[in-house]
Amino acid sequence: MAILKSYANLLRSSPLARTISWIIVVASAIFIFGILGRNVKRKPVIDSIIPMIGSPGDEMTIEGSGFGDSRGTSSVEIAGSKITASGYSLWSDKKIKFIIPPNAQDGLVIVGTSAGKSEPAFFANENGIPVAAIASPITSIPVITSISAESAVTGQTIIIRGINFGSSKGKSKVYFTANRDETSSLHSSEQNENQDKNNIFIPATETDFDYIAWTDSEISVKIPDGASSGSVFIETPHGTSAAKKINVNFPYGKKQYSNRRTYVIQIAADISNHVASQESSILLYIPKPAVSSFQPFVELNEVYPEPFIVDDAFDIIHNKQLNKITNNKQRFSQTFIVSTFGIKGNFNPKNLGQYKDKGGILYTKNTSADACVPSDSKAVSSLIETIVGREKNPYRQAKLIYNFMTENYEVSEKVRTGNISPLDLIRRKKGDAYDFAILYTALCRAAGIPSVPVAGILAQDKSNVTPHWWTEIYFEGYGWLPVDVSLGAGLPFSSFIEIADPKEFYFGNLDNQHIAFSRGWHQIKQSSLNSKIVYRPRTYALQSLWEEAGDKTSSYSSLWNNPVIQGIY
Q1: Burial tier of 535 (Cβ tally within 10 Å: 0-12, 13-18, 19+)
Q2: Least enclosed by CB within 10 Å: which of 339, 353, 397, 489?
Q3: 91, 112 in Cβ contact below 8 A?
Q4: Which pTM does this prediction carry?
């Protein structure tokens, strides 16, 4: 009591003491009301959850109040497991959205904030309910939860994690934003969603061995040649995932794909004058135009007669009973719509080092000899040592080989015929475009530079189409670089664009008049050991088998026409 009287006398006699007292009272009141407000007004409340019964990969929506305008350190847990930060797509004071994670079990759903935890709602995982349920396509749509790297370079392996990818790849694909200049006119109302996807995105490919591993929850895939910074998504037979972002860096320069040109191309072969038994048949392997970063759009427009196999990766395959050919003559015809881009290389070799992934399939396959590229020849081994000397930079090695061939060998416009070797070019000092492309590829492979010969046609106008061959070489962190040695050496050619110096241009750059039908050698197995086979050398595709007739076929005639361009757009 005495203390209170002394404190009262102090307040009456001292203005300072009265001021301090009022400050203490006001601060205490603010503190008390703040505590009450946090525990009463801000405590989260769940009004509903949708779905109450669902599966991992579904999107759950929680509605209620007191969640906070942003997530911060708040979280949602299902059966005691918290949702990770990457799982949320929306967090507001009255609504939360997130993807139900793969490990979600039956249990309580709770929203927790700094003010406390909500009263729980109940969730049931329908995968654990022992009753028949109607399947929902939504639950099987692929979902990407994370990508192992925010930035990568061409050829680098990334790991995509999530759910519903499928236990094996099958026909599923991973798409990346394409590195192309011409996208301004690709969103017209006349285009459908699939066309728009193909114009803007590019898939990782089997031909470059981009897919390393594929499981239902994890995909290991390389950044494909022709990809750029932007969206990544997965397409499966069950649907398409939402996109994630990735940056693609270009340490050695960024290729420029531009000047798109579209061609309508017809390919035909005629079979006639056959002599065969009733059971005999003939197989025709008609090459398809190859899909690549510079030739990303290939569509089969018409085909006659109905092919035996249409979805082979490399060929349209026809199988015809010879006794069913009317009037002893049959034409096999197919028309393709093909779009190509010109390439400007922009390569900077300054910091290019040795290949790091020499154990990878892309490297080993494309530095090894095969039936088309004799890179293990003694003549090739001796010549490559003379050309590159002590140079270790792969780009400069490739340029030395290019300069040597364009300066020392003469190119012939006429394609050679007969059973001849492209290595004759070393001795004769003169050869056709096939000789130049195969020898250049062989020399690059002998130097340890991954390379592929490319066969196709040169389109100069609708009436002037010729078979042609060139090379692509591969650099880690960059992708494929085109090299056309024969055009660089002076092969006559009428380009749609002005090329001041062909020798300089055709190392690393390419016009949009090169139409590829094969990249690398395609070894086709006979369907029967006793069948009669035909190989067509030095033509617009590199494959071991073109025709295969049954063993009961005595004779027949075949005429393969070079591809014909019916339209250029």
Answers
A1: exposed
A2: 353
A3: no
A4: 0.75
**Token pair for residue 477?**
């962190």
Three-state SS string across 251-273, please?
CCCCCEEEEEEEEEEEEEEEEEE
Per-residue pLDDT of the chain (569 residues; tens, 9 = 90+): 554 455 555 556 665 555 555 556 545 555 544 544 444 457 899 989 999 888 888 899 999 999 999 999 999 999 888 998 888 999 999 999 999 888 788 778 899 998 888 888 888 887 765 544 444 555 689 999 999 999 999 999 999 999 999 999 999 999 999 998 754 333 333 334 444 566 789 999 999 999 999 999 999 999 999 999 999 999 999 999 999 999 999 999 999 999 999 999 999 999 987 776 667 889 999 999 999 999 999 999 999 999 999 999 999 999 988 878 877 899 999 999 999 999 999 999 988 999 999 999 999 999 999 999 999 999 999 999 999 999 999 999 999 999 999 999 999 999 999 889 999 999 999 999 999 999 999 999 999 999 999 999 999 877 789 999 999 999 999 999 999 999 999 999 999 989 999 999 999 999 999 999 999 999 999 988 889 999 999 999 999 999 999 888 888 899 999 999 999 99
Using DSSP's 3-state secondary structure scheme, residue 469 falls into strand
Pairing of strands 514-519, 75-78: unpaired
CATH superfamily label, 51-128: Immunoglobulins (2.60.40.10)
Other residues' Cβ atoms within 10 Å of the Cβ of residue 377: 17
Helix, strand, or coil here: 87? helix
What is the C-alpha end-to-end distance of the chain, expressed in Å? 103
Q: Do domains 51-128 and 347-519 have the same CATH topology?
A: no
- CA distances to 8, 98, 207, 502, 531 from 490, rounded to whole Å, are 109, 62, 31, 7, 42
Helix (H) or strand (E) holding 198: helix 193-200
Q: Where are the alpha helices (DSSP H) in 299-357?
A: none
CATH, domain range 347-519: 3.10.620.30
Whole-angstrom distance, CA of residue 442 vs CA of residue 21: 94
Q: What are the tokens at 143?
A: 């979902």
Contact indicator for 255, 479 with CB cutoff of 8 Å: yes
Q: List the 218-222 sheet strands across, edge first.
A: 143-147, 157-163, 218-222, 211-214
Residue labelled with tokens 């779905």: 51
Residues near 5 by Cβ (< 8 Å), separated by ≥ 6? none
> Domain limits of the chain?
1-28, 51-128, 159-249, 257-342+523-568, 347-519
Tell me the C-alpha to C-alpha distance, in Å, between residue 179 and each of 155, 254, 497, 509.
14, 9, 21, 15
- Which among 415, 446, 418, 449 is positioned nearest to 432, based on CA atoms? 415
